[in-house]
């Protein structure tokens, strides 16, 4: 089987794998390994799909992708007929669309966060009772972080200070600081960009929802290193009952994902799933193989 056929098979397999993984619950016991597997599937789908198209386009040169593209450029694609030219246009077009949409998502979120930070400078205040946190004078429940390289902000509302007791508030703040520290926004960015490219495909939306839930669970795990799980669980239930407003664009909130996701996280906090080291190792090893295999196939002839 040629490299091009293998790349096409991997591209199809990643779609099937994403469908299965989006309906699986075992990643809830190891959210970081699950996130790594999702990232590997996304990367493999992109590189394999583009590789299959480009591999078919340069098939007349018989040198694989890495050898065939320079050979094609050197003779101005003289050997390519209409089907191979169409594959070349599709491969380069898909590459351009994915890169442009990713760049657009980065710029859009950067601008939204910059505007929101400017707004926070005007309407939010620092509080001695919650050091390192900005407080909005708003009666509704709100708690979120605005990520950034050097300017991440954790924001709570006055309504949140009234809603939660001190232990619950500390647990929520630990959760939000975990988002900022581990830069979960960067994990979400490619999946959010992919949904913009394929907004009508339900599987893409389910992939984003699954990654969002795993990110929240990873932040929960980080928070419970310092706080009792019950504190965060009761805080989440109070937030869900208070029906907090939607968070600003580009921010990450403790109650992201809706009521069903919150209930799943509460159940997980109260009854933690058993840690399975062998499954975690297999997931991480599988993620490595899935991410690397398509790139290696670029060097295979045909």
From TrEMBL:
Gene3D superfamilies: Metalloproteases ('zincins'), catalytic domain. Keywords: Hydrolase, Membrane, Metal-binding, Metalloprotease, Protease, Transmembrane, Transmembrane helix, Zinc. GO terms for molecular function: metal ion binding; metalloendopeptidase activity. The lineage of its organism: Bacteria, Bacillati, Actinomycetota, Actinomycetes, Streptosporangiales. It comes from the Bacteria. Belongs to the peptidase M48 family. InterPro entries: Beta-lactam_resp_regulator, Peptidase_M48. The keyword Magnesium does not apply. Binds 1 zinc ion per subunit. PANTHER family: POSSIBLE SENSOR-TRANSDUCER PROTEIN BLAR (PTHR34978), SLR0241 PROTEIN (PTHR34978:SF3). The keyword Transmembrane helix applies. Its cofactor is Zn(2+). This is Peptidase M48-like protein. The chain crosses the membrane at residues 85-107, 279-300. Residues 112-198 form the Peptidase M48 domain. Pfam families: Peptidase_M48. GO terms for biological process: proteolysis.
